[in-house]
What we know:
Layout: H1 10-15, E1 70-74, E2 83-87, E3 92-94, H2 104-107, E4 109-117, H3 149-162, E5 176-178, H4 188-199, E6 201-203, H5 234-237, H6 246-250, E7 254-256, E8 263-265, H7 269-272, H8 283-290, E9 293-294, H9 300-312, H10 319-327, E10 333-334, H11 346-354, E11 380-385, E12 388-392, E13 396-397, E14 401-404, E15 406-407, H12 408-420, E16 424-426, E17 432-434, E18 442-446, E19 467-468, H13 470-477, E20 483-488, E21 495-499, E22 508-512, E23 523-530, E24 535-543, H14 558-570, H15 585-588, E25 596-601
Amino acid sequence: MAGIASTTDRRRFLLSSGAAVVAVGAAYALPGQRSSAHPVAGPAPGDTGAAPARPAVKRAAPYGATTLQTTARLTGSGGYRHLVSGPGWPLVVRGELAAARRGREDRRAALACFVQFTDLHVADVQSPLRTEYLRAGSPGSWRGQEALSVAGAVSLVEQVNALGGGPHTGRLPAFVMSTGDNMDNNSMVELEWFLTLMGGGRITPNTGDPAAYEGVQNCGLPLYWHPDAGLRDQDKLRGMPRIPGYLEAAIRPVTSPGLRIPWYSTPGNHDDLPGGCLAPQDPFLSDYVTGARKLFSVPDADVAAFNKVQESGDDPKSTVLKEILRHNARRARTVTADPRRRLATPHDYLRAHLDPAYAGAGPIGHGYTENHLDGDRMYYTFRIADGVVGISMDTTYRSGHFEGSLGTGQLRWLERTLAAHSARHYDADGRLVRNPAADDAHVLVFSHHHSPSMTRRPDAARTDEIRHDGAEVIELLSRFPNVVAWINGHSHVNRITPHAHPVPARSFWEVNTASHVDYPQHARLLELVDNQDGTLSLFTTLVESAAPHRADFGDLSAVGLASLYRELAYNAPGLAAGMGSGVHEEMAGTAADRNTELLVRRG
C-alpha cells in the first residue's frame, strides 16, 4: 500500500489484490455540504419513528454525531499530529444499478435501520502467541494503539447508544451486526471481553500479572513505542510522544454500558484462528499461549521466513512459526502464565454467545441457537424488519488461513434460504423459477470476508467439502432479484462495489467497511427505504466513536484513552503522507465509498 510500510499486514496484503474502484456517476458536494443534485431525504411520509432529541451531554463532538456532521482530521505537521473536528463528508448518490428518479424523497417508505460493526480486534496485547517481532520487517505490521482496543470499542458502543434516529429515515437503529474479527487472537479471554463489551459490564483488559503490564511496550527494545519511558525508540524518533502512566491506564478496568439495542454476531478468521491465520487447537500453540514464555524479538531471517508463509498461506500446520518459537526459546522472556488465554474452539465460541450472562439487549445467542452446536454451524437467518431478512454466513477456513470461502453445504443452504424468500428467481441456467408461497422479502447478506478475499483453497478441517470463492457467491446472489446488498469487512477498508447484471433487477451492492482498530476506525449506519418508484435506496453513513477527536495526553480516563486510540491510529507509520485533502482514500475510501445512497431495482 502506497505510503504505508505494511507488507506483512495480512489485511492490507489482501487489499492489494482486491477489486478496483468503480467509476461513479453521481454529483459531489463540497465537504460538509449536501449534493445539490440529489438532496438528502428527510423522514419518510407517515414514518412515526422520528429521531428523539439528542441527550443532554457535556461531551465534545463527535458524541452522538455521524460523519455527515463532522469527521476527525489531522492538523499541524511533524512526526506526530493531533486530530481536530473537521467538516462532515457529503452524501454521494450512486446510480450505477438504478436511476435516481426525481421526487423519491417525498415518496420514500422506511424499511429498516441498523448499524454494522466490523473488525473490532479486541486484543490481549500481552499474549505469548502474538508476533509483534514481525515489525522488524515492516513498521506498519504492529499497532501502537492496540493496548487501548477495549476503551476504543466501549466508546463505539457509547456512540451507537447516543445516535438517535437515522439521518435519512428518522428511525432508531434496530440492531447492530458485528461482521467478524470481534477478537484478535482467538482466545477465551478476548471472547469474554468482546461479549461483555457488547452486553455491558466491567472489563479488565489485562492478563498475566494482575498488577503489571508484560508486553512489548515496556520491554526495552527500540523496535516498539515505549509510551512511559524515555527510551529513544524508533517511534519516538519519528515523533511519537511520551505519555507517562499510559500502560498503567491501559490495563485498568473499563465499564461498558452495553448496547441498548439487540446485536448479532458473524464470525471472522481471527475469531476462529489464533492470529487469524494459524493452525487451530494445535497442542504446541495451545500450550504456548497459556504459558510463561514470550518472544519479543527474533533474527531477521525468521521474520522473513514467517512473512513468506504468512502471505502465501502455504503453512496450514503453522510449522514455520512453531520452529521459530522452538529454536528461539532462549531468547524468550519470562511472563506470567494465564489459563484464560486458552484458544477458543468453534464450540466454545457458540456456547459463550448462548450464555444468558452475555444476553445484553438480546437476543440470547445473538443469532445462534442450541441447534447450531450440532456440527458447530455458524450461519443463520434472522428477521431485520417486516419484509426484510438478514442472512449471516460463515466464511472462515477453520484449518488455518486468513482468506475465506464457503463450503458446498453452506452454499446449498444459502441457495435454499434465498429461494424460500423469493417469489421468483433464476436457476443456474438462467431459467425463471416462481415460488408463489414465498414472502418475497428484501434480503441483506452479511459475512466477514469480502468477495476478493474468498478463494477455493482446500480446508484441511473440512476435507469432505469443496470450497467456493467470492465469484461463485456473487453468481449465486445475482440469481435472486430480492438481494439488495452483501455487507462485509475483513479488508480494513471502506469500499462499495456495484455488482451489475445484464438483467438489471439481478444487480446488487457489496458494502465493505473499514475496521475499528486501524485508521479510520469506522462503523456504518445503514438505512433501507422503498422509493415507491420501482427502486430501493440503501443509505450508508459512517460513524466514529464517541470520544473527542483531539487527544489530551494528560487525560488517561476511559474517554481520554478512547481519544488516544483513534489519534494513535491516525499516526501509524507512513499514513499521513498518503492523506490527500485530509483523507487516506486507499483505506477510508473515496467519497463514493463513505456516505452514500445506493440505488437498486426493486426485485
